Amino acid sequence: GRPLKVYMASESSIHSVLDQYKTDFSSVNAAVTAAQREDQAERRRRIAEGDIKTIVQDSPISRALSKILEYAARNRASDVHIEPLEGSLKIRCRIDGVLREIMQLPKTIEPALVSRIKILSNLKIDEHRIPQDGQFIVEVSGREIDLRIAISPVVWGEQVVIRLLDKSGLSYKIEDMGYAGRALRDIRKGIKKPNGMILNSGPTGSGKSTSLYGLIQELNNDTVNIVTLEDPVEYKIPGVNQIQVNAEVGLTFATGLRSILRQDPNIVMVGEIRDRETANLAVQAALTGHLVFSTLHTNSAAGVLPRLIDMGVEPFLIASTVNTIIGQRLVRRVTSERDVYQSTELETRSIHENIGHLLPRTQADIPKVSADLGYKDLPLARQSAYTLVKGKDTAKTPGGYLGRAGLFEVMDVTPEIQNLIVSRATSSQIQALAIQQGMITMRQDGYLKALQGLTTLDEVNRVTASI
Predict the structure, then answer these.
(1) What is the pLDDT of residues 439-461, one digit of tens each?
(2) Are 409 and 455 in a shared domain?
(3) Are strands 77-84 and 157-166 parallel, antiparallel or unpaired?
(4) CA-CA 20 to 30 A from 74: which of 53, 273, 304, 321?
(5) By CB neighbour count within 10 A (0-12 exposed, 13-18 middle, 19+ buried), where does 192 fall?
């Protein structure tokens, strides 16, 4: 026979996991039951008569959707996934970067629920063959939340992904985002230059746009004209002229950037450099005396430079315009309900390998090194164990985490790095020189944050595994 695997768990661990999935969705269930009770013949008649709007605006469906969105907003979800399966409708929420299933609904409710979302988003309810995008606003506990809707046809129906943009409680202070020490000093040095480019790299959902908003807020005053070109405009900032890209009418990043440069801007933000034309226009804007902010999708700060070359930008132009490059990821924060423990032998070895050379060698070095790296009372480099924390796993704090913080690497483009760019060096060669010149990598920043009790080594390793 097959080998038998035995798994053991304590009673408290099992209850903890069950609590994570025990949510009061009684009103959703009641709405579903009410919707299912409706006479099927009557429903078919109304659909045949084109009266689908009346069906989906009925209170049971509205209440079900409202409850799902309310749950997502109260639990700080960034996205809600409504996924049709063969026999059911799965609802998942992305909380602190991790998707969790919150419930499954009967398959029969899918058409009405998706149509309700389409109506609220001003989309075509009779179009099921092509993807559609829309948006609407809801109010939860007195907070206005922007919802961005993406609907795609899949095998078993239509999948809906709802992104929640909650403006309340969002801090644009770059210290609050997680910048510290050398990274904080280098980024402030870069944005104080009157022209050039500040580029931010990272995967989707790593906080790049929020970082750029924070940097722009540092410069936002009555003496400068700041114009942004975004797709979409996620957060509205007083004093900043924000333009929404609209490809349907010909307003792309490239055409919008040409227009912006005629509006006498001091600072320009382009939401993303996606193609050769936009890349070359951004470089030309930086060459003509503008400070340009933008983002690219690369794994590290060093990877941005070869990526621009691949897009067709001349290396000497990149070397002369790029001031600073940011690489970033988001890690989950450890909740305030936590246990303190001493690192295992494996964790200690990992700390030594990753940041041992950064930590103070003697007690006398602690104040100077801590000030340089931006973290208080750092431990010594060769300790036999380190104090770490682990959050308590509860229904409100799954895995012991609550909220997120950024991991950053900030590369100052020095004359030596400029020479490497001109010689078309690889990203690994550029990265090696930047580290030699003092750049703290994202993984190193994560380990320093773990020593401060902000996150865990497991979380840092999970997020930086591909770097």
Answers:
(1) 999 999 999 999 999 999 999 99
(2) yes
(3) antiparallel
(4) 53
(5) exposed
